[in-house]
Amino acid sequence: MTTHAAPTLETPPAPAAPIVQDVRTIPRKLDAGARTNIVGLTREQLRDALIAAGTPERQARMRVGQIWQWVYHWGLRDFAQMTNLAKDYRAFLADRFEIALPEVVTRQVSDDGTRKYLLRIAGGHEVETVYIPEEGRGTLCVSSQVGCTLTCTFCHTGTQKLVRNLTAGEIVGQLMVVRDDLGEWPEPGAPKDETRLVSNLVLMGMGEPLYNFDNVRDAMKVVMDNEGLSLSRRRITLSTSGVVPEIARTAEEIGCQLAVSFHATTNEVRDRLVPINKRWNIDELLGALREYPRLSNSERITFEYVMLDGVNDTDEDARRLIRLIRGIPAKINLIPFNEWPGAPYKRSSWERIEAFADIIYKAGYASPIRTPRGEDIMAACGQLKSATERGRKSAAQVAAEAGI
Ligand code: SAH
Ligand code: SF4
Predict the structure, then answer these.
(1) Is 141 a known active-site residue?
(2) Rounded-to-10 torsion of CA 292, 293, 295, 296
């Protein structure tokens, strides 16, 4: 995500524990009287929920506005402190609703300041979220699914069998948990602080966001709302492996920036690297991408290209890439392959990556090389895989903690 010239090329240290393919889905605890979680509801959904619980219709809009500000602007978790609501209304809310976030299981901090959080969500599942501080900004890399149904051969997440979609609340919750950890909620009465620790959000963690479209859209509506978390759509980037039918909807219903995991310049190689290419091939994908900037008013599409030694990294690949994307406002983000234990590929050499970048640059495209971040804690792109599959707790322990 940066344009620094020299990525670190060290191999990450081998993880302490071997990967165990121990796949288990713990059913959600069904609790008929469960309170509704406010986090992740859009304004309309919150309004409907308040009315369904007994709030008079004519008051509902105003109550939404008040609660919204407490939860998303001030970061409040306790209805009792919502001082502009009548006491009995606060009690009514506490009785029927909750403000619940994923639970932080572990937090690791890399030598370079990157923070990786392992979060536990309903059902005992776990997902990872990564915070990447940079000069003048901070990017949060958010997961959209537990694992991923797709099986890109260079991606660690793709080897994880356990999969479920995250709810909108679990997606928004990732941002809120990290803001808690960074202490990034405004202090009442303190002068307004314009520096933002989390200034950008990328949907580049675990999962394929366009296979969880509705929840991702609703979560982004909450995140973009400018009376709350207030991240503009220009500071949000959704990365897809190429779910072609959902690309136009992304433009129309979310309007954020789009990144595409392109990674190859022939269908033969892309079929191998990004198997969804067998469903929607390069031509179909490019067709959808040509429409995107016009529909979403976005400036450029980011083409992500992972540099795999001897697989997709020749000069000829670079030239083919330029020919393919001609006419699309684009930038090409070269990602040095991040190795993981057992990965079937090697990272291209630094000279190769630079030569590739040079051809692209000379053709008039920005070609930043993404600096691998947090490699020492396996937090770099494509290294995420729930620790449920590494050195996990016993099933009984997880089940007990999930309240089953
Ligand atoms: N599922 C979405 C978003 C998550 S992956 C997608 O595939 O686009 C975010 C980016 O990291 C994608 O471009 C993905 O292809 C890339 N990536 C995955 N594994 C990687 C690895 N081991 N090294 C470098 N990049 C990787
Ligand atoms: Fe899923 Fe993206 Fe990994 Fe492919 S690269 S397996 S789509 S998370």
Answers:
(1) no
(2) 110
Q: Which residues pair with 369 in a beta bridge?
A: 334
- What pLDDT is recorded for position 341? 87
Residue ID of nearest Cα to ligand 1 atom 17: 382
| Burial of residue 87, with CB atoms counted within 10 A of its CB: 0-12 exposed, 13-18 middle, 19 or more buried | exposed
Name all domains of the chain by residue range, CATH numbers in brackets: 19-99 (1.10.150.530), 103-377 (3.20.20.70)
pLDDT of residue 63: 98
Distance between CA atoms of 388 and 391, rounded to whole angstroms?
A: 7
Residue 349 to residue 351: CA distance in whole angstroms? 5
Per-run averaged pLDDT (10 residues), the chain, 404 residues: 38 38 44 84 98 97 98 97 97 98 95 94 93 94 94 91 92 98 90 85 96 98 97 96 97 96 98 98 97 84 97 98 96 94 94 97 92 82 62 42 41
Considering every ligand atom shown, identify the ligand nearest to the alpha carbon of residue 151 and give its number: 2
Euclidean distance between CA atoms 381 and 302, whole angstroms = 15
Give pTM, 2 decimals.
0.88
- Residue of 149, 150, 216, 381 to test ligand 2 pocket, by largest number of atoms within 8 Å of CB: 150
Q: Are 382 and 155 a contacting pair, CB within 8 Å?
A: yes
Residue 381 is among the residues annotated as catalytic for this protein:
yes
The residue ranges of DSSP E strands in 63-192, in sequence order, are: 97-98, 103-109, 115-120, 126-134, 137-141, 145-146, 164-165
Q: Which of 146, 381, 384 to mutate to test the pocket of ligand 1 (most atoms within 8 A of CB)?
A: 381
Closest atom of ligand 1 relative to the 339 alpha carbon: 22
